[in-house]
Design goal:
The protein is of the alpha/beta class. Helix content is about 40%, strand content about 20%. Bound molecules: guanosine-5'-triphosphate and magnesium ion. Keywords: Chloroplast, GTP-binding, Nucleotide-binding, Plastid.
């Protein structure tokens, strides 16, 4: 009897949330994963971690996002950077009311790319409920997003505005990127796993599985946005 478990094909992706201290990274993650908004600011020390499943409608696929909440305060810089390794997605955040956080965006992108290379990313402006205290102009935020080649979301973690959209978009971007980048290694791993689990199964079956997996990959191919 051939056994295939769902987790053999389930997608899990490590996502890092980066940006200056106080921009609302923890609030964004908590709102998304727990529908909870922490009013009080407690700076993250090192890293924190939450996970949530996202269903990507356009591709009819479920992805488990493992969200790594990193500390934005400079004092933790050297520690948090090592946690970027293995991330296949990043959310770069700045705050509507903190110009410095906006000016640090390129720097955060570079830090992620130094550890992870060019992975799917999204740019987020948080605290849009405080637009009357804004220290950044709309045209400059849009120009930055365009220069960096990133999709840009204006969100409010406090009022849960466009929070889910950020992660749904990133999950879709990841799936499409993954098809291109990881196609060959994943096929090989899938076949080896199956072969090991079903040592007694026929060569004919192994070949059929290979064909099935290949067709699955091909049917999802596209041009990535990054
Ligand atoms: N008005 C408003 N306040 C927000 C929003 N999101 C977060 N905050 C507040 O901003 C402060 C900082 O939020 P955090 O989520 O802790 O910020 P952080 O980016 O995780 O900060 P570090 O852990 O130091 O890197 C908290 O007091 C939050 O309540 C928002 O959308 N609107
Ligand atoms: Mg935090």
């Amino acid at each position: 009897m051939i056994s295939m478990r769902e987790e053999d094909f389930q997608r899990e992706v490590k996502v890092v949330i980066v940006g200056n201290g106080g921009v609302g990274k923890t609030s964004l993650i908590r709102q998304f994963c727990k529908s909870h908004f922490p009013e009080e600011y407690k700076k993250t020390i090192g890293v924190d971690f939450l996970e949530k499943h996202v269903y990507v409608k356009n591709l009819c696929e479920d992805v488990k996002l493992m969200l790594w909440d990193t500390a934005g305060q400079e004092e933790f810089n050297s520690i948090t950077r090592s946690y970027y390794r293995g991330a296949r997605g990043a959310v770069i955040c700045f705050s509507t009311t903190d110009r410095n956080s906006f000016e640090s965006v390129e720097n955060w992108k570079q830090k992620v790319e130094d550890q992870c290379g060019r992975i799917p990313m999204v740019l987020v402006q948080n605290k849009v409920d405080l637009l009357e205290q804004a220290s950044v102009e709309r045209y400059e935020t849009e120009a930055l997003a365009e220069n960096l080649g990133l999709r840009f979301y204006r969100i409010c973690a406090k009022q849960n505005l466009y929070v889910t959209e950020v992660f749904e978009y990133l999950a879709e971007l990841y799936l499409r990127w993954d098809v291109q980048i990881m196609q060959t290694p994943r096929l090989v791993i899938g076949i080896v796993k199956l072969a090991l689990r079903n040592r007694k199964s026929s060569l004919k079956f192994q070949l059929r599985m290979w064909l099935y997996l290949t067709l699955q990959q091909i049917s999802g191919s596209y041009q990535p946005e990054i």
